[in-house]
Amino acid sequence: MRDFDSLEAGLEALETAAEPAFLLAGEDGGTSHLLTDPDPLQLAHAMPTDRSARWNALNTSVLTEFVLPKVWGMQDDEQDVRIVHHDPRAAVRLAARTGGTAVILRPLAVEDVLAVAAEGERVPRKSTSFGPKPRTGLVLRTFV
Known about the structure:
The structure is a single chain. By secondary structure, the chain is of the alpha+beta class. The chain has helices at residues 7-16, 40-46, 53-57, 59-71, 88-98, 110-118; strands at 2-4, 21-25, 32-36, 102-104. A hairpin with a 6-residue loop joins β2 and β3 (32-36). The longest helix is centred in the middle third of the chain and has 13 residues, at 59-71.
């Protein structure tokens, strides 16, 4: 774990950190903590044996199968884990408002998503966010 005095410094370090890497930030809004290099033995015990090595190496997989349940004792569900795409500062603001912790990850590489899909697997919940998406309730009609 490496500590940083600002979110910006933590985000810079996250960009170059070896995967899996997680930047934690929360209520104080200033400091951040970069977690890297999980214990390989604990990681091996936590990750599903029926998944490919590529899937098990994804940062989102390590978060949902190891960090959340084994380290923090919680499950990845929509009530306890909220997803904020593309805006780490908004994630930190949400964490501060709710008394939680923002866990910031680098986005999955397209080649990782394609490689996992080629194995017939799906990436973990909300691992990708392809846009733009139509607003809920939008009605499309063809004109003839």
